[in-house]
Amino acid sequence: MIEVQRLTKTYPGGVQAVKDISFDVAPGEVFGLLGPNGAGKSTTVGMLTTTIAPTSGRARLAGFDVATQPLEARRASSVVFQDAVVDRALSGRRNLDIHARLWGRGRERIGEVAGAVGLSELLDRPVASYSGGQRRRLEIARALVSQPKVLFLDEPTVGLDPRIRHELLDVLADLRAQEETTILLTTHHLDEAERLCDRVGIIHRGEIVALDTPGALLARLGREIVELRVEGDPAGALAALRAHGVAGEDAFAVGSRLTVPLHEHSAAEALAAMGAVPTAAVATRRPTLDDVYLRLTGDALAEAA
Ligand code: ADP
Predict the structure, then answer these.
(1) Taking the model in full, what pTM does it have?
(2) What is the Å distance from ligand 1's center to 272 Cα?
(3) Domain ends where: 183, 212, 241?
(4) 299 confidence band (pLDDT: 50, 70, 90)
(5) Which CATH number fits the domain that encloses residue 260?
């Protein structure tokens, strides 16, 4: 449904925002682009939604090339941007109605999309009276009116407080079960990627540095991790743990914190070997997507610091 081949964007002035990325998203799949601010997520979404011209490479939505068939590609897709587009002075229903007419959809579609995002009860109130989370849900309902084959959600929970954010995540999770839309969402929240996405592409400085299911990304780090805060030289401590055979190539240091995936070692063996390293705190736990992410991007961040 989404085909991205060697897509690249260099902005005037030479900023290489997206560097030669490739991925495919299957029909009905929820795909997450996960990365920190400035990683190139919005630029990628901009190219896929035809608002930013790629420097090279190609992308197709539902078979339509975004560069040579932009109208068809746009017709097959819908976007929820970070900035609000609904009219605050109008009711939710009126907002959806205007959009439905534009797309030649009937009233029943309004009922469907409002139900899908849990807004049925609020439709006749002016949008100005909606909470931030409700407004965001209306934006999503509006985007769904046209029954897009592909829905883009650019940082759907940005600016929402934690409780509202979790409410919206529930809505998105339900949506995923109800509608057959293929979804590409961007986020810098690891829990969102883990909870909502079938597959995740980790994007760092314009490049996709890992792409897999959340489960497979986690499995790379084994079942257990030892995390320690070292006193003194983290790089030296990491080297010492590697020399003792406890830490493998996938162990990493960010600041004074060492993260050591255990794989075949037991925690007891690891802790015994760690006697050699002066530590301030030690804990064992299961790996999270955070570890995967830091492993892939933290080393580079540390080098840059
Ligand atoms: P993200 O969405 O992951 O935060 P962006 O795609 O917005 O990342 O930005 C990627 C890089 O491109 C950043 O270094 C950003 O400063 C740069 N950038 C974004 N838009 C422009 C632009 N219009 N002109 C020049 N540089 C830009």
Answers:
(1) 0.87
(2) 47
(3) 212
(4) low
(5) 3.30.70
